[in-house]
């Protein structure tokens, strides 16, 4: 039986930056385009956090029973380490998905019922990332999924449930946040290339190889700052505030650029998560000031 601290570590709390950042950014869009509806913003945050923890447990279970977590660098894997029974980890994942579904249903009732379909797709995608007979995370599609669900859907959805409209500002905000979320996954998969090759897990990093994966990571971190300039020019200034996150970007890129590998990339993972959240907060502030 896993202990409470082990369950907490298995939830991978450092990844919760990915859930929080798009909700913050989407709420900034709401402040820009109309006004913040706090109860809906909180419900969107519950959905995002519950889905993130749920997918972490689901991945732990699926990778654990496949044996791909037998040789890993990073946080504790509950199933792979034998700390928890697979059935218990599945139950934890399903409990989180249920919380997300309930909060999502409330949001749909308050706004539009077509959001139920979006939520259902998100839950299925969370499970099939490493679960099911043909997990798409093993087929170099993880980054596409992260961009769609942590960028376009999470940011755009958070803005939509508060404003009930889809705007250009929402899209221009969602893209850079989604790219930074992709950067975190790319850094994670860069670290895991040796183990994934042995486990026959075909991530995008495995297909690209070490050198090109490092260049991809750098592009994913730099491009969001270029897009902020575009958004700031369009909005006459305030979104430029997000450029203040640039020092965090440099800190994240440095180990990757200098060839760090394995456990030496853990600081990059931490810095990328912090960068993603800081970028989202600063961009949200800039958008809110515009209003």
Number of strands: 0
- The proportion of strand residues reads under 5%
Shape, principal axes of CA atoms: globular
Structural class: mainly alpha
Uncertain runs: none
How many H/I helices? 13
What can you tell me about this protein's structure?
The chain has 291 residues and is an all-alpha fold. The protein has helices at residues 4-10, 16-33, 38-66, 78-81, 86-110, 115-128, 142-163, 168-191, 193-198, 204-208, 210-234, 246-257, 266-290. The protein is built from 13 helices and no strands. Helix 7 packs antiparallel against helix 8 (168-191) and helix 12 (246-257) runs antiparallel to helix 13. 49% of the residues are buried.
Provide the descriptors you would attach to this structure in a database record.
291 residues, mainly alpha, 13 helices, 74% helix
Give the arrangement of secondary structure elements:
Layout: H1 4-10, H2 16-33, H3 38-66, H4 78-81, H5 86-110, H6 115-128, H7 142-163, H8 168-191, H9 193-198, H10 204-208, H11 210-234, H12 246-257, H13 266-290
Helix pairs in contact: 2-3, 2-7, 2-8, 2-13, 3-5, 3-6, 3-7, 5-6, 7-8, 8-11, 8-13, 11-12, 12-13
Compact overview of the structure:
The chain is mainly alpha-helical and 291 residues long. It contains 13 helices and no strands. Helix 3 (38-66) runs parallel beside helix 6, helix 7 (142-163) runs antiparallel to helix 8 (168-191) and helix 11 (210-234) runs antiparallel to helix 12.
